[in-house]
Amino acid sequence: MTHHPLLILDKTRCKNNISRIANKAKQHKLNFRPHFKTHQSIAIGRWFREAGVTGITVSSVDMAKYFVQDNWDDLTIAFPFYKGMVPGLQDLQKKASLRLFINNEDDLSLLNKELEKQFKVYIEIDAGYGRSGIPVSRKGEIESLIQSIEEGQLSEFHGFYIHDGGTYKARSKSEIKEKVKNSITALRELKQLYPSAKTSLGDTPSASVLDDFEGIDEITPGNLVFYDWMQVQIGSCSPDDVAVYVKVPVSQAIRDNKAIVHGGAVHFSKDYIEHDGSKTYGQAFKFKDNKISPIKGVTLTALSQEHGTLSGFDSALTDEENFINILPIHSCLTVNLFDCYHTTDGEIIQKRILS
């Protein structure tokens, strides 16, 4: 009998998510370079390979080294380059070709000096979200950087990349399409100026719902391998597409139809969604005819380090071992807090931990 929270993976749902987006990419003639930071597992990476994926995206040198062990040799490191990466990149180049995010000429010059083999460069573009990259309005800066890349002994200009975090604030398919417009417009504009450049879009909501990818060459979403309760709210997927959940022990029923569960910030992270002024850190559900059926009003409403407060609790909701199933708000963060997956058919699948 288990006595601690478990990360549960439904392989069928997961493989369905992978094949759906791989087929969509094929249909729209997009290069699909999935971001592996969500699952961080060699075994799950192989399911993408079975779906025809050959190039992948990661967020660090260490994550790249982990996947290189399984012969992935076409890697995008989707994080702005900094000097401390150099020794790791030198090592990686012995086994893989690299695409790097470089946003200034000093970094470019350093890499042309320190690396031994050719590398490709994405220029990350900020279309208004404001996290990282060069604002799309700075055309002179972009032009100057492209020229320097082309003149570099080892650097080769690959294209432009945008991860539009604004789509994560959407609450419907039409809103996702509205929020991603600036990013699409920016990439199309740059494609007109630099026709040979590849244009790449990174977020899960737009990859999931867009049906017009004109001007876009690549997509690099990660979260859609699993999805989560936030993506359901955004409009990216249905509850039945969510491929991971956390099974937590119910410890103690308390006042006002609440219960304490063994599932806190170290299991779920502190990401939340807000609805009618209250915060939700996880959504309880039951299986109904093998489908995921969220239980209205039964949510994690507070988290400390290891304790969670479950509101709307009723003892009839627990299984015979007194566990309850919770859909995570943000699967990327939740999954990172566990060292393995327990599959619904009894397997244990190993993974790495991001930090």
Describe the structure.
The protein has 355 residues and is of the alpha/beta class. It folds into two domains: 216 residues, TIM Barrel, CATH 3.20.20.10; 113 residues, Lyase, Ornithine Decarboxylase, Chain A, domain 1, CATH 2.40.37.20. It is built from twelve helices and 20 strands. Strands 2, 3, 4, 5, 6, 7, 8, 9 and 10 form a nine-stranded parallel beta sheet that branches. Strand 4, helix 4 and strand 5 form a beta-alpha-beta unit. The protein is globular and about 70 Å long. It starts with 5 loop residues before the first strand and ends in a 5-residue tail after the last strand.
Task: Name some characteristics of this structure.
single chain; 355 residues; alpha/beta; TIM Barrel; Lyase, Ornithine Decarboxylase, Chain A, domain 1; 2 domains; 6-stranded antiparallel barrel; 12 helices; 30% strand
